[in-house]
Amino acid sequence: MRESGSRSRHVRAWIAAVGLLGVVAAIAVATATSSASASPAKAARATQACGQDVSYINKIKDPDGVFKKLPANIQARYGPWPYSVRATPWEAFKGKKPPWKIGLITFPVGSPWLADLIKQVGVEFDKAKAKGLTSGSLVKYIQASYATATPEQQAAAVQQMVRQGVDGILLLPLAGPPLVPAIDAAGKAGVPVVITDNVIDGSKYVVNVWSQNNSPAAAGVAGLVKKGNILFVRGIAGNPVEQAFQDAAVADVKACPGLKIVGTVWGKWTNATATAEVAKWLAAHPDVKVDGVIQNGIMMAGIIQAFLQAGRPVPPISGGGCQGGELSWWLAHKSTYKSVATCFNGFQTAWSEFRILLRILNGNGLKVRDIHVPVPVVTNSNLSVFATPGKPLSWPGEPRGPISGWAPNSFLDGYFNKPGNPKGF
Amino acid sequence: MSAIPGQPAAATGATRIWRRLVALQARFPILQAVLLIAVYLYAATSLSLSSWHSIREILTLAALAGLAATGQTLLILMGGFDLSVSNFILASALTVSVLRDQWGVSYEVAILVAVVAGGLFGALAGQICHRFEIQPLIVTLAMGGIAIGLVQVETGGTFAGSSPPWLIRLASPQSDTFGVIGIPPLVSIWAVVAVLMAVFLHRTAAGRRVMATGANPRAAEYSLIRTRRVWTLAFAFSGVVSALVGLLVAGSAASVDSTVGDPYLFQSVVAVIVGGTVFGGPGDYSRTALGALFLTVVNFVLVGKGATPGDQNMIYGVAILVAVALYGRERRLRDRI
Amino acid sequence: MSTGAVATESPARPASSARAGYAVTLGLRLLNRYSFAFALLLTVALLATTIVRDPDPWSNGFWVGLLQNMAPMALAAMASTPAIISGGGGFDLSISPLMYFLAEVFIVWLAPHSLGGFASVPIVLGLGAAIGAFNGLLIILLRVPPVVATLAVFFVLIGVDLRMLANPNEGGYLSPSNWVVHLADKVGPIPGGVFTLGFPLLVWFLLGLLPYRRTLYAVGSNDATAFASGVNVALVRVVAYSLGGLFAGVASLALVAISLSANPSLSQSYTLLAIAAVALGGTSLWGGRGGLFGSLLGAASIYLLGNLLLTLQVDPSYLQVMYGGMLLVAVVLGGVAARARQAE
After folding, report:
1. CATH topology of domain A88-211+346-373+409-424
2. Are B39 and B298 in contact (CB under 8 A)?
3. What does the pLDDT average to over C10-35?
4. Closest-CA distance of chain C to residue B159, Å
5. I need a labelling partner for C276 at 20 to 30 A (CA). Which of A39, A90, A136, C239 fits?
6. Helix (H) or strand (E) holding B255
7. Strand, coil or helix: what is C178?
8. Alpha helix positions (H), A59-133
9. A352: which residues sit within 8 A by CB, 6+ positions away?
């Protein structure tokens, strides 16, 4: 009869489903237990002092021997650099004759830093055009929204720009590794791609210009607190740069034996999420005193908000990737609030990146593939230089600073065989 | 009672109790409430989520999720999904911010503009859906994209300025309603909305029309229910609610960035489904409210325990499946012939 | 839904409007016969414009690049299609994280254990088909709406993706000498994209030779009727979801071919793109209509439009508006054609 026939089919179907579920569960368990947890570079000295930033300088991978050849003062800039330092084909590059066509590729604009960077690149492009260094208009590819953005789109944009005859590209990757083939293909075709806000270790032709701008602040806060409970607020899970930030911050905290890590929440690098997640954690641990918070990027304002909302005293929060709102709040509470931050803004980044690209296109001979730009450290003593007074916590502004305050010309000269910008730009 | 030949045997006591429980579950969200209480008890004991302060936090975040799911409830009752929630939330926050900061419009007028725009976009979506018999999933997706695209053309980016102090106070879990009653204002608003929705769906003719349209659209047409009007108004309502939630989200966040709306997209669907509203009905808003509370408490537990995002997502997915398997199932195919 | 009222013709119409009316009817008939007609029109128009603007369109590099970059999204769209055609509210939201999961399986498990050669293909495809079948069984046995069931699997897979590459700095990369790179480049003179995009189309064509495809469409149009005719609706649907998983496996290979890595933080990025491409391609979300070719064309339109706007340097915000507009036009046309079909 149909009833019993369908029932036995039913049973068989359930068995199949459970079997598949078992397979899936087995895979899940296997993946969970097989995930490695090594980091790009382990901390160098066993004797890192409390409050001192982690240094990988003795462990920097230098397979091409170029790091050894750098002068000592430049080598010293690579303290918190966890990746390798490689030779670059752009050293032998003779350059092209100006004017050049320049392309700009970025992930979706969701922060004032990126908006300012894009604006400033446009400004620099026009200034350069007036000097005959660039031609046409800036070719931009700015992804529209995170919901539909993929790194493959950026790779396609790199290829498309190369086909259109662009001479050099400034790129802010949505994700680093997927762009390696496109960047290397562009490099082989003679188009340098200069990256910021990320490090791509696997590409031969890329030019990495990066700031480890979280661990100095983390080390500062660790040294400030010295003894007590630390809450970690992390960024986006699965992101390689986020993992690098975290490894360095953990090393900084471990250097202070009096500090205890009491929890980790994931703020996804946005203030709104950081507020919600920290608020949830605080609600679940009302009796745990939080003496310091270490966050790995642009979430300080959100964390302050969460503590204010919870009615708890705001502890020192590491201000990595500091924004204008939190600096202004800090300035207003300077007499009672202490913390450590690292601050640079989008205008400064754009100013320096543009000049790096121009120098490469001019054939100045870049010495190494990877440039680490140490960031100004902000404490209560120099806060007023960077903070804009009188702004609310949610102000979407940036820290102040001179336009060449991130990587000035004198800084860049050390990385090129021939110093100076083309045509004295 | 003796068995009559040819009739099924009389039900035993256990079966009768089971049948009565099943009938009760069809009318009241009992299992949902039980699950919620169980999860909350776990949270209160293994973490310190039993203080009044923690409850306020939970209720406030649940209120945001529940309010965002209001329009979604209506749409799911009518047999569709609204994928524009996240984009409308963001578009509304950005519109108000742009109008205030760049055009100097007063906040009240800016709110009005955002709400009306949300309603109009929603109404348009509803009209298109009904007139051309298209699945709402796609039309709302398209509408949401258009809305956020238009706003982005105007703002040139997707982050907004700060909200006025009164809105921040309104959205804070620490405030009290009217400064007196010990409940956060957001929660009071949510409670009022829940009551209004319950009255609307169960006691007004319009609400009956919504339920009828969802249960059997063709029969509704034959019953002279103007289904096009029902769809248009329901979508418009969803748009208006999303716009208002956008403002509340902007008020509760330290700053608005391009991803503020994203969690609410799938979360609103899950809240409705986990609450026990079946696709196309039956269901109502009280179930959604329970669903939102359940999800929020689970989230608090996961965050409090320091679960990694990987674990959080896996547990979230399994929780959805378990909840739906318990009380969200549809009729057998052979019963539909 | 409103009943399709047949429009009555007015008595005397001028010749031009009669011609216009005829053109409209012809267009609708075309759309009825070929649900992908609008997407085809869009693709041809966009492709023509792209070729005109490109400095070197007849080089192999152009087509290689085009197919390679389009492949992941097109394959994600094609993977989402069988589930939608199977009807009953059929939907598969879990394709994007499944793609990334299979990509991670390849990179983290297969390649380091010297299974990264051709042996990886049946493993990845088989695993994809198995997970797809699991989706289908979940929907059939639990009788939950497919959107909800696949949404739950979506979250679980995102979690698994994150767990698998918990430290993304270790083991998330593939050597550029792996054979899979050819899928994004060339296999001899043929662009690799032809193989990745061609595989699902080939499978679909072969299924058309069996009675399966016809049965699938019958189930999608009206499952109660199909059931009453003795069709094993459950099996047909499970196979449909399994097909989706299989194609997701191909998508993961295409993804790995381009990027030589799998970034778990982005595992949901193809979800909305795939849905939009499927709808653009004329596949009705009610089921029983549409096909893989339409999804391919839909994805091609989306990709070409984005590419073109880059070339023409149009503000990316307009891209969002245009996507939404294109999508609306496509589904409205599909709806109008369906109404005309009912009226005939």
Report:
1. Rossmann fold (3.40.50)
2. yes
3. 73
4. 14
5. C239
6. none
7. coil
8. 66-69, 72-75, 112-130
9. A209, A373, A404, A406, A407, A408, A412
Distance in angstroms (rounded) separating the CA atoms of residues A11 and A9:
5
Nearest chain B residue to A306 by CA: give it. B254
Which residues of C fall within a CB distance of 8 Å from A155? Answer: 69, 258-259
Question: Chain C residue closest to A34 (CA)?
Answer: C164
CB-based contact B313 C159, cutoff 8 Å: yes
Q: How far is CA C32 from CA B79, B138, C20, C284, in A?
A: 25, 19, 18, 12
Quickly tell me which residue has 């996240």 as its tokens. Answer: B86
Q: Helices marked H in chain B — which ranges?
A: 13-27, 30-46, 52-77, 85-101, 107-132, 136-155, 165-171, 185-203, 205-215, 217-222, 227-252, 262-275, 285-304, 309-327
Contact A394 B162 (CB under 8 A): yes
The C-alpha R_g of chain A, in whole angstroms, comes to 24
C320 vs B146: CA distance, rounded Å: 6
Q: How far apart are CA A179 and CA A205, in angstroms?
A: 11
Pairs of CB atoms within 8 A across A/C: 164
pLDDT < 70 regions, chain A: 1-13, 16-17, 19-46
Element (H, E) at C196: helix C192-209
Which residues does chain B have within 8 Å of residue C163's beta carbon, measured at their own beta carbons? 308, 310-311, 314
Buried/exposed B60-92: b ≥16 CB within 10 Å, e otherwise:
bbbbbbbbbbbbbbbbbbbbbbbbbbbbbbbbb
> Chain C 120-149, CB below 8 Å of chain B: which residues?
138, 142-145, 147-149
Q: Where are the domains of chain B?
A: 30-328
- CA-nearest of A149, A393, C315, A302 to B155 is C315
Q: Give the C-alpha separation, B321 to C180, whole Å.
A: 36
Q: Is the ipTM of this complex over 0.95?
A: no
Tens digit of each residue's pLDDT, chain B (337 residues): 455 665 555 667 888 888 887 777 777 788 888 888 988 998 888 888 888 888 989 999 999 999 999 999 999 998 888 999 999 999 999 888 888 877 888 888 999 999 999 999 999 999 999 988 888 999 999 999 999 989 888 877 667 777 788 888 888 888 887 767 778 889 999 999 999 999 998 888 888 888 888 888 888 888 888 888 889 999 999 999 999 999 999 888 767 888 888 889 999 999 998 888 888 778 889 999 999 999 999 999 999 888 999 999 999 899 888 888 887 666 666 666 6
Judged by CB atoms within 8 Å, which residues 204-223 of C form the interface with B?
Answer: 223
Provide, as residue numbers in chain B, all residues whose Cβ is less than 8 Å from the Cβ of C276. Answer: 138, 141-142
Interface check for B266 against chain A (CB to CB < 8 A): the answer is no
Domain spans, chain A: 88-211+346-373+409-424, 215-342
Distances (CA, A) of C115 to A152, B280, C111: 25, 47, 5
Residues 350-379 of chain A whose Cβ lies under 8 A from any Cβ of chain B: none
Give the pLDDT confidence of C89-140 residue by residue, as tens digits. Answer: 889 999 999 999 999 999 988 888 888 788 889 999 999 999 999 999 999 9
- Name the residue facing B81 among C147, C284, C335 (closest C-beta): C147
Q: Do B53 and A310 touch (CB under 8 A)?
A: yes
Backbone angles phi, psi at B207, to 5 degrees: -65, -40
- CA B277/CA B275 separation, integer angstroms: 6
Query: Is A267 an interface residue toward B (CB < 8 Å)?
Result: no
With contact defined as 3+ CB pairs under 8 Å, the chains touching A are B, C
Assign A59 to helix, strand or coil: helix
Chain C residues with beta carbon closer than 8 angstroms to that of B144: 324
**CATH code at A215-342:** 3.40.50.2300
**Residue range B30-328 in CATH 2.60.60:** no
pLDDT digits (tens, 9 = 90+) for A229-265: 999 999 999 888 999 999 999 999 999 999 999 999 9
